[in-house]
Amino acid sequence: MSLKKTTIRHRYNYDFLQDLCKENGIELLKDYSLEKVNRELRIKAKCLIIGCVNNVEKTIRNIVKNGGCYCKTHTKENKYEKSKNSDWNNTNRIRYNTKYFINYCKENNIILLKDYSDVKINRETIIEAKCFTIDCMNICSKTLRNIVHSSSCYCYNCTVVLGKEKRKKHL
Ligand SMILES: [Zn+2]
Ligand SMILES: [Zn+2]
Question: How many domains does the chain fold into?
Answer without folding.
Answer: 2
